[in-house]
Inverse folding.
């Protein structure tokens, strides 16, 4: 079966006023969809046809001759993960096991916020900021360039924030730090991150 554009996990206007329906209609309906269309064309008749996104990403990561396939597969995966990393009435602080692990591994919630803001703000050009469970079993804040995803390095993503300009430009223009602050204060879906940690 060819890949399909996954539905948003909420209504297109559900993240307003922070991220508008206008942004989501372009970001999900145009950008995310284009990766789906492109990947389906690229894998048709190849060894990757019928494989999962994760399998395609792991098989093509770091292979310059397969960069187009990797970029489109990873961007489908990253964006789907990003939509779930936000929720209407999100934000605030995590609780339970995730909060305890943030305290133990990252030095507390405030230190996490500082690290996550820095990762997003200092990712030059396009990319992503992530909270991951690394291969040593510790929480870590990382950033990746373009379509890259910590999954291909063996880490378990718990949460991501898109810092490509198309994620925020219609709502925040060039004020990426304001978008990052809004993501943490009003959008981040801690229940999703906690469920990813529990499943790891």
């Amino acid at each position: 079966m060819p890949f399909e554009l996954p539905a948003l996990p909420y209504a297109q206007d559900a993240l307003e006023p922070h991220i508008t329906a206008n942004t989501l209609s372009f970001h999900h309906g145009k950008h995310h969809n284009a990766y789906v269309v492109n990947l389906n064309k690229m894998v048709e008749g190849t060894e990757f046809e019928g494989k999962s996104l994760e399998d395609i990403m792991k098989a093509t990561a770091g292979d310059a001759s397969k960069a187009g396939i990797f970029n489109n597969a990873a961007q489908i995966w990253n964006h789907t993960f990003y939509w779930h990393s936000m929720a209407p009435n999100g934000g605030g602080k995590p609780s339970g096991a995730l909060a305890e692990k943030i305290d133990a591994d990252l030095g507390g919630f405030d230190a996490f916020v500082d690290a996550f803001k820095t990762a997003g703000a200092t990712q030059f050009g396009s990319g992503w900021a992530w909270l991951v469970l690394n291969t040593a079993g510790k929480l870590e804040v990382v950033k990746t360039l373009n379509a890259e995803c910590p999954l291909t390095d063996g880490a378990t993503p718990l949460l991501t924030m898109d810092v490509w300009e198309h994620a925020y430009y219609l709502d925040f223009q060039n004020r990426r730090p304001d978008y990052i602050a809004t993501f943490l204060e009003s959008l981040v879906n801690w229940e999703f991150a906690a469920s990813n940690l529990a499943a790891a």
